[in-house]
UniProtKB/TrEMBL annotation, chain A:
Localization per Swiss-Prot or TrEMBL: Cell membrane
PANTHER family cross-referenced by the UniProt entry: GLUCOSE IMPORT SYSTEM PERMEASE PROTEIN GLCT, TREHALOSE TRANSPORT SYSTEM PERMEASE PROTEIN SUGA
Predominant place of localization: membrane
Domain ABC transmembrane type-1 positions: 66-277
Transmembrane recorded as keyword: yes
UniProt KW Oxidoreductase keyword: no
UniProt name for this protein: Sugar ABC transporter permease
Domain of life: Bacteria
Length: 293, 366, 362
């Protein structure tokens, strides 16, 4: 082996480094900068160290928002993932029906976030909204501006309606890539429908599900526009999630220092949870090599 | 136990087939006997995959019957037939261990665990998978995976036939012959009917005791590898089996001589009579390159041919010859010096086949 | 047009793909690159095409250094394993595409496309789209595209692996005929020794990025320079037996003795590896000095007109190549005749020290 060493290749990644610096590192550093200072105006600022971080971590309002946020994200994942898989399984596989259903399923994904909020806001109104009106006619005192339960249920329903199609589409493409021979072999092995799902379809879906779950988690953890339009975070604070608390603090109250510290904590939480998800799922797939020994 | 009978079987993918060309399988009758090692050999598009799907139950034939031990199974789904299938690409259950893969078909019919264990251990032993039983199936090599998919058929007591669909496609060339041997061993040990579908003459002849050669939706010959080589029943078999394939000369008789175009062909009297008596204009003589006697000097009864090219294939050479207007190939062994310019050919009568309308006609010249 | 590779190395990310290859291809020659997967065949072709540049060494075309010149500035064409055509263009337009790029005049394009199509027997398919064709016809189209532009070098990277064996047989014959009338250099990569023999011309045997031997195909086959070449260029594999030559006899694996014959008498005493081709072993005695060995059948592989018999005993595993179809039961006993006058001998370094006299000796 006569290896040739030189470091010229590093120049090739320089443009990429610069790009990343401008798009991610510099804005992030600005936030870090704010998070350790108390800014009064352009010329008056004090170094505060970790004070904002401590304050944020001890803020009961934020604790509540964080809890609500987790409750919301886990609930929508728990509903959307199985539902998405289920829809993918019953979607027709060929012919014009397949195309028609595909278009139908994709529809909600094409609607912008704030428009989704507006649609549902109208949809749930007791006087002119189809859902609100129907529920009232059926005798249920439905009111999202007064009942936290109604507000929660509606937001979850809205998110499920908006985002289950994403999981369904990912799974559908995953299912399409399974060769027919697998199904034939399973029939010959006299496997039940459940076994086919458990041992053929689900394992082959793992990869797309990892992507789906991560995307959905990050998305739902950052949810902002829809509840903002639909409930404005109410009634009370019952549907105020993290991003809305942050916005209120940063823009509404101009508390740049605390909100910067809060942003960083928020960012780290998302990073941590995504990493945990990813490692957990990847570990499930590994062969337990030690068992063989 | 299974004897698989195909009775007046035909299949077309069209709703209303009009001409014979519309059929993927043209009407045929065929029997695979219990315990035989068979191959279904043919080029792509000959209908062998269609036939395989009909036998395994993935496809219902448009007409005729599929009988398993005399019982009509036309519309029975694969799971209701006692067959197993090994596919071109190994089908294994990724997340399961090798043990669980092998146990799967038994557990699906609620076999007691003790019995499952007994069968799995036995089959793993035969397939030399005992050491791998606790590994995840997806980490195996291609040949091990293929053994696992075969094993899932072997564990079942009720399986009486295994269908193989080009099972060695993804196997490393150096390992192929070992797996071929394994297949033969399994056939001898388990009393199973095995049907091996392939387009490769080596795969078919090595595995099978009897080969069905398919061509344009029909079985044109059903015979041992030796019969296919020495007495091909159809011009297609002559062409398809052997490398290079059989030489064919279109012949007729003129002035009491057998002529290929303008060239007289030296054959014995029986063959000459048979050519003269043929009731068709499509009459051919076929002889394999291996059986042509080649000489560099004029010989008694030798036909003069032009040597166009000699290709040394290491163990032997192929001579590319021109006999009148026909291209003829002849094989000569390593110790024979290839003739240059002209060669003199003799066709030994017992190795010349007469083909009328593409099918062999026996002339009883032996 | 000649093509010379001068002491070429190709190193990618610290791994050596090609090492010290020295090769001169003559104008109008047909050359086979024979080697197993990852032996460097494709890498070498990419260097010849100018798709990659060598880490060390020079590439000369007609004496001119073209080492750094890109594929666009060289007149080469390539045919791949996969049937690569423009799916949206008809067969005619596919074949015409290189000429259109070269701005050849319309009438001339038409003439050459039809000429090539006729040569490749696809003249009746010119109006079709590639995906409506069979695999063989698709590959013919791809070959048409490679041949139409009168390239100086035409490279084939295992073009027949995805076709069945009858089509392969036909293609090989046609290729030989096509190139016998052309003055370009053809380079054809394959993993199969039988294919190299069927194509004829010259063969370069590659192993782990090194060139083992280059010469006329029959010569390389019959007269390998070393044991590795003999092993790489044999199908079924050449049988190798370790042995010792002492005063008056040869001993195989310390157990099987036989007297030295004229063939091997000139070799000095010592340790050797002896090679015998599968086709030289026999089930019937052919010469007085054949040694009789009792063996057990592992498997008879039958290839339509030939039989490859795998046998073993407690000393060695052997493969025998028999003409015609012979059926053997697994584990059946057979008697093998080992031709002592048809063996190759290799010294401890693997260099050939004896070639059977009937193949020219050494």
């Amino acid at each position: 082996m006569n290896k040739v060493y030189n470091n010229r290749a590093w120049w090739l990644i320089l443009p990429m480094l610069l790009l990343v610096a401008f798009s991610a590192i510099i804005p992030l550093m600005t936030v870090v900068n704010y998070s350790v200072q108390d800014v009064f105006d352009a010329n008056t600022r004090f170094f505060t160290g970790t004070e904002w971080f401590r304050e944020m971590l001890n803020d009961p309002a934020l604790h509540a928002a964080l809890l609500r946020q987790f409750a919301f994200s886990l609930t929508v994942l728990a509903i959307e993932v199985p539902l998405g898989i289920g829809i993918a399984l019953i979607m027709p596989k060929k012919g014009w029906q397949a195309s028609a259903v595909l278009i139908l399923v994709t529809m909600p994904l094409l609607i912008p976030w704030n428009v989704v909020g507006s649609i549902w806001q109208i949809f749930t109104r007791g006087d002119i909204g189809l859902m609100g009106w129907s529920l009232r006619e059926l005798g249920y005192g439905y009111n999202i501006t007064a009942s936290p339960v109604d507000a929660w249920a509606t937001i979850i329903l809205m998110d499920v309606w908006h985002w289950t199609p994403l999981i369904a589409l990912l799974c559908y493409s995953g299912l399409r890539s399974i060769p027919d021979a697998y199904y034939q072999a399973a029939r010959i092995d006299r496997a039940s429908k459940w076994s086919v799902f458990r041992y053929i379809q689900l394992p082959k879906l793992t990869n797309v599900l990892v992507i789906g779950v991560l995307l959905r988690f990050m998305h739902s953890f950052m949810i902002y526009a829809e509840p903002f339009v639909l409930t404005g975070g109410g009634p009370g604070n019952s549907t105020t999630f993290l991003s809305q608390s942050l916005t209120t603090m940063a823009i509404g109250q101009q508390d740049l220092g605390p909100s910067a510290a809060f942003s960083l904590i928020y960012f780290l939480i998302i990073l941590l949870v995504s990493w945990v998800f990813y490692t957990a799922i990847m570990n499930m797939q590994k062969d337990h090599k030690n068992e063989e020994a | 136990m299974a004897e698989i009978t195909l009775k007046s079987l035909a299949h077309s993918y069209l709703a209303t087939p009009a001409s014979p060309e519309d059929y993927a399988i043209r009407e045929m009758n065929h029997v695979w006997h219990q315990g035989g090692a068979y191959a279904l050999l043919g080029p792509s598009g000959c209908g062998k995959s269609t036939l395989l799907n009909i036998i395994s139950g993935l496809l219902e034939p448009s007409s005729g019957d599929v009988l398993f031990d005399g019982e009509r199974v036309n519309s029975l789904p694969p799971e209701a037939r006692n067959i197993a299938q090994v596919f071109q690409f190994p089908v294994i259950y990724d997340t399961m261990t090798v043990y669980d893969n092998l146990a799967f078909p038994l557990r699906n019919v609620k076999t007691p665990e003790a019995r499952v264990r007994e069968r799995v251990m036995e089959v793993a032993d035969v397939l030399e998978l005992t050491g791998q039983l606790r590994r995840k199936a997806k980490n195996l090599t291609a040949d091990e995976k293929q053994k696992v998919s075969m094993g899932r058929g072997l564990v079942r007591d009720d399986v009486s036939a295994i269908l193989f669909d080009e099972p060695l496609t993804v196997i490393d060339p150096q390992l192929k012959w070992k797996l071929r041997r394994k297949l033969k061993e399994i056939h001898q040990r388990f009393n199973l009917t095995m049907v091996y579908v392939t387009h490769d003459q080596l795969e078919a002849s090595t595995f099978a005791d009897k080969i069905a050669v398919m061509y344009e939706g029909q079985v044109v010959q059903f015979g041992t590898p030796r019969e296919l080589f020495e007495r091909p029943n159809h011009t297609f078999v002559g062409y398809f089996i052997g490398s290079p394939g059989m030489n064919f000369l279109e012949v007729s008789t003129r002035d009491d001589r057998v002529m290929a175009g303008e060239t007289p062909i030296a054959v014995g009297p029986r063959l000459r009579e048979a050519v003269a008596g043929a009731r068709s204009r499509n009459v051919k003589l076929g002889i394999r390159p291996e059986f042509i006697e080649v000489s560099g000097e004029p010989v008694e009864g030798g036909m003069e041919a032009v040597v166009e090219h000699a290709q040394d294939l290491g163990t032997y050479s192929i001579l590319y010859l021109r006999l009148g207007e026909y291209a003829v190939k002849a094989r000569i062994e390593e110790d024979q010096e290839p003739p240059e310019g002209r060669a003199y050919l003799r066709f030994p009568d017992n190795h010349v086949g007469l083909y009328v309308d593409e099918y062999r006609v026996e002339t009883n010249h032996e | 047009m000649s093509l010379i590779l001068e002491n070429i190395d190709r190193v990618v990310g610290g791994a050596t793909h090609i090492e010290g290859v020295q090769l001169e291809l003559k104008p109008g020659s047909f050359n086979v690159l024979l080697g197993r997967t990852l032996s460097g065949k494709t890498t070498l072709m990419r260097l010849m095409a100018g798709l990659d540049a060598p880490t060390r060494g020079r590439v000369l075309m007609d004496g001119e250094d073209v080492t750094g010149r890109s594929v666009r500035q060289r007149n080469v064409s390539m045919v791949y394993q996969q049937f690569i055509n423009y799916p949206g263009l008809s067969v005619y337009d596919n074949i015409a595409s290189p000429l259109k790029l070269a701005k050849v005049e319309r009438r001339e394009i038409d003439r050459r496309v039809r000429e090539i199509a006729e040569m490749l027997h696809i003249e009746h398919l010119l109006a079709r789209l590639p995906l409506e064709l069979s695999g063989g016809q698709q590959q013919r189209t791809a070959m048409g595209r490679a041949l139409v532009k009168d390239a100086d070098v035409v490279l084939f990277d295992e073009p027949l692996v995805n076709l069945d064996y009858k089509l392969r047989e036909e293609f090989r014959e046609e290729l030989r005929a096509v190139f016998s009338e052309r003055n370009c250099i053809a380079v054809y990569a394959t993993t199969e020794p039988a294919e190299a023999l069927a194509l004829g011309g010259n063969t370069a045997v590659l192993h782990e990025g090194r060139l083992l031997q280059y010469g006329r195909t029959e010569d390389v086959y019959h007269r390998p320079r070393d044991i590795l070449t003999a092993e790489m260029f044999s199908e079924p594999p050449i049988n190798i037996v370790r042995g010792i030559i002492s005063g008056s006899e040869v001993t195989f694996d310390k157990r099987l003795h036989f007297p030295l014959n004229d063939e091997l008498r000139s070799l000095p005493p010592g340790e050797y590896r002896f090679g015998v081709r599968a086709s030289h072993l026999s089930l019937t005695p052919r010469a007085k000095d054949d040694i009789e060995v009792k063996m057990t059948v592992d498997l008879a592989e039958i290839s339509g007109s030939e039989t490859f018999l795998h046998v073993h005993n407690d000393l060695f595993n052997m493969t025998v190549h028999l003409e015609g179809v012979h059926e053997f039961a697994v584990d059946a006993p057979v008697t093998l005749y080992f031709p002592t006058h048809k063996v190759y001998a290799f010294d401890r370094q693997g260099a050939v020290v004896h070639i059977p006299t009937h193949l020219g000796g050494i």
